[in-house]
Amino acid sequence: MAPHIGNHNDTPLLLRPPLSTSENKEFVCGWGAATVNILVTFPINKIIFRQMLHNLNTLAAVEQVASEGIFRLYRGVVPPLCQKSVSVSIMFGMYDKCRRPLLDRNINPFLSKVIAANVAGTIECILVPFERVQTLLQHERYHKEVLSMKHAVNLLWHRHGFAEFYRGLVPVLCRNGPSNALFFIFRDKANELFPEPTKFPSRVVNQFAIGAMIGALCSTIFYPCNVLKVHMQSRIGGPFQSVISSIIEIYLERGSIKAFFRGVHLNYTRSCISWGVINVAYEGLKKIL
C-alpha cells in the first residue's frame, strides 16, 4: 500500500529506480484501491454521517436512510469517489516524494516520515470542496434544494463564492496530516513485526489485518474532527464558524462529550473494512502493474 521503506541510503542514487516511475505506479494503485473501497463502504458512511449530524443511534440512522429508498442510497457517492481516490493517491505519492529527499539529506527517518506525512495531508486539503458537496448531498434537509453534484457546485459558486467550498477546512487540516503520520509510522512498525507471508491467502489476511487495525485506530482518534467538519459544513452561507465556537455549540446542543463520538462504533467498523480493502487492493495492484 505504502511505498516500501527500507535501507534507502544503501543504494547509490543513480542506481535507484526513477522517481517518476514509482510515483505513477503508486498513484494508479492508490486510485484503484480507493475506488473499490468507496463503492463497498459508501452505505455505511452515509449512516455514520446521519449519526454525526443528528446525534442518532445506529438503528435510527439505518431506518432514516432506508426510508429514503434504494435509489437515494448512493446519492452523493460521486464527490467521495472523486475525493477519496485522488486523496489516497496523493497520500502515498506525495509522502514518498517528500520523504525521499529528506532521507537523502540524512534527516532522521522518523522525523522524515512525520514531515512527509503532514505535507501530504496538507496537500490533500485541496480536495475539501468534494467533502463540502458530499455533506450537502447526504443531508436530508437539502434533498429538494440540492439535486445533484453539479447543482451543488453551481449553488455554492454563484450564491456564495469560492470560500464557501472550503467551509470546515480547519478540522480537515487537523485531521489529515497527523492521521497520515500515525498511519505510516504504525504501518512500518507492523510490517517489521509481522513479515509478509509467502502463501497468497496468508498474505491477503496479513495485509487486510494490518490495514484494518491501523485504519480503525487512526479514524477513531481523529473522529471528533469529522464531527466538527460535518457540523460546520451542514449550513450554506452565513458567517464561518471557528473550531472553538463549533465545539461549544455541539456541546451545548447535545450536552455531552460523548456526542463528539456518536457513530464511532460504526465508523471503526467501516474503517476496518475500508483500510483493509485499500491495503489488499493496493498491494495487489502494485504486483500486477
UniProtKB/TrEMBL annotation:
Membrane topology note: Multi-pass membrane protein
PROSITE patterns, sorted: SOLCAR (PS50920)
Keyword field: Membrane, Mitochondrion, Mitochondrion inner membrane, Repeat, Transmembrane, Transmembrane helix, Transport
Keyword flag Repeat: yes
GO molecular function: NAD transmembrane transporter activity
Solcar repeat segments: 21-101, 108-193, 202-288
InterPro entries in the record: MCP_dom_sf (IPR023395), MCP_transmembrane (IPR018108), Mito_NAD+_Carrier (IPR052465)
GO cellular component: mitochondrial inner membrane
Localization, UniProt: Mitochondrion inner membrane
Record bears the keyword Glycosyltransferase: no
Pfam families, per the entry: Mito_carr
Family: Belongs to the mitochondrial carrier (TC 2.A.29) family.
PANTHER family membership: SD08549P
Protein's name in the database: Solute carrier family 25 member 51
Organism: Nezara viridula
